[in-house]
């Protein structure tokens, strides 16, 4: 790793042994943080926090879509085009998806709608993964739909949230990311920020 290698250019001897040890320790942490698995979460050595960016979250959720599901055994539903937004105030992730509902025997044409879903986060210790939790429907937007389908669309949105978002893994820590200098660490508080999710790392 070029970054880690360049860090070990120790200052001249007159800079002091303590300073050199501090720089080496910092570089070791930076090199360690670069050993991520599926995505490269950034580690902040000063605050002991990992940050998973919004783009990394988008990349983690994207493989779930497009997805098809069956509703009430009569409607074919296709969910596609997920768009993420960070809800800092409620500490949740918002996912907006397009939904097309079709039944050639009942509907003259497919119903197109937009579902807004949200999820909290939790850490699953056995798998060392950060997962989506407590998905909920925030909004169902649809035009030109008979009133009798309104409640059914909300039920459909709830099913979609539970099926595709609940317990979905958005980041997995590698064992070496949670060990340093003979000490073991574990993710703690998870905080949603404007451009990503911050995960506190605390010593066990």
Automatic annotation (TrEMBL):
Domain of life the protein comes from: Bacteria
UniProt protein name: DUF1439 domain-containing protein
One Pfam family recorded for the sequence: DUF1439
Keyword field: Signal
Leader sequence residues: 1-41
Gene3D superfamilies: Uncharacterised protein PF07273, DUF1439
